[in-house]
Design goal:
By secondary structure, this protein is α+β, with helices and mostly antiparallel strands. It has 2 domains: about 90 residues; about 230 residues, Bira Bifunctional Protein, Domain 2 (BirA Bifunctional Protein, domain 2, 2-Layer Sandwich), CATH 3.30.930.10. The chain has 11 helices and 10 strands. A hairpin with a 2-residue loop joins strand 3 and strand 4. Helix 2 runs antiparallel to helix 4. The longest helix is centred in the N-terminal third of the chain and has 38 residues. The protein is rod-shaped. The termini are far apart. The structure holds 3,4-dihydroxyphenylalanine. The site of 3,4-dihydroxyphenylalanine has 11 residues, from strand 9 and strand 10.
């Protein structure tokens, strides 16, 4: 029996030190030391031994068990370390390698200018409201004093979805919606996309953006309109920006005006940017027509208001020195990543 134990110890130790990985090692532990393992098998013969032999054999068996257990523990540590070393080696980071460049998105020039404009108007106490781009003919035209046969419709080549539904050709549609469902005082801007069936060129696009403004309250005058727009453009272009108001006609305002701002490049002297005029046309505005107020449920005897609509693209193009409007819509990253 002693020989059996010695033999098992030798074989066991050899096998343990030769184990290739932790799994093999565990199998060996089961094979030699497990409940049904070889050691147990040998110990079953203890019954046949004499009373003197038994404790001696028991001691040897314990030594063999301890030797195998130690060897297994030893090998386990070694295999673990080897596995960790291999892993670390495989995952080593070469800090001298060039990094991967991450491209970070930029705000589109139109969005950037829209955000600036919104901030200025918010600072002046305006609320920002949204309106649908697919709009009823009623809000886009009729409520604004532009009935079906009105010639003003010709100046806005409109996309019709059906007889009474259009892609809005002006953000003025939001004016009618706001007045219809709220009571003055009102002070809102409504920025957004508008659509016209224009051929694409350097200054035209079938989709562009406007910012509509509307103020309705008791005692609102043309002076308030001028003051509001002057404040806006001075915040946008600096204190020296001057506005020029010229009489114009819009069906939904009376009186109406067309507003130009002094060229920020030459300050009025005339240059390439303003085509020698010294002024840049930017928006239409006026006092809300009493008929429009009435149609939208506001009593023109009590309230008055002003409205304006400015084109965003012109402002973005001036702001960033962009000479062709198409660039704003082509989504060419070489262009967009400059801003
Ligand atoms: N909606 C007009 C346009 O697209 C611009 C405009 C003019 C808006 C006068 C207004 C306004 O609110 O009062 O040409």
């Amino acid at each position: 029996m002693q020989e059996q134990l010695q033999k098992m110890k030798e074989e066991g130790l050899n096998a343990i030190y030769a184990a290739a990985d932790e799994k093999a090692l565990d199998a060996l532990r089961v094979k030699y030391l497990g409940k049904k393992g070889e050691l147990t098998g040998i110990l079953k013969q203890m019954g046949k031994l004499s009373a003197e032999e038994r404790p001696v054999m028991g001691q040897i068996a314990n030594e063999v068990r301890a030797a195998l257990e130690n060897a297994i523990g030893d090998c386990q540590k070694k295999l673990k370390k080897a596995a960790m070393d291999a892993k670390l080696k495989a995952e080593v980071i070469d800090v001298t390698m060039p990094g991967k460049r991450r491209s970070i998105g930029k705000v589109h020039p139109n969005t950037a200018v829209m955000n600036i404009a919104k901030e200025i108007f918010l600072g002046m106490g305006f609320d920002v409201v949204d309106g649908p781009e697919v709009e009823y003919d009623y809000y886009n035209f009729e409520a604004l004093n532009i009935p079906k046969d009105h010639p003003a419709r010709d100046s806005q080549d409109t996309f019709f979805v059906s007889e009474n539904i259009v892609l809005r050709s002006q953000t003025s549609s939001v004016q009618a919606r706001v007045m219809e469902k709220s009571t003055p005082p009102l002070r809102i801007i409504s920025p957004g996309r508008v659509y016209r069936s224009d051929a694409i060129d350097a200054t035209h696009s079938p989709l562009f953006h406007q910012i509509e403004g509307l103020v309705v309250d008791k005692g609102v005058t043309m002076a308030d309109l001028k003051g509001t727009l002057e404040t806006f453009f001075q915040k946008l272009y600096g204190e020296e920006a001057k506005l020029r108001f010229r009489p114009h006609h819009f069906p939904f305002t009376e009186p109406s005006a067309e507003v130009a701002v002094s060229c920020f490049n030459c300050h009025g002297a005339g240059c390439r940017v303003c085509k020698g005029e010294g002024w840049i046309e930017l928006l239409g505005c006026g006092m809300v027509h009493p008929d429009v107020l009435r149609t939208c449920g506001i009593d023109p005897e009590v309230y008055s208001g002003f409205a304006f609509g400015l084109g965003l693209e012109r402002i973005s193009m001036r702001h960033f020195g962009i000479s062709d409007m198409r660039l704003l819509y082509e989504n060419d990253l070489r262009f967009l990543s400059q801003f």
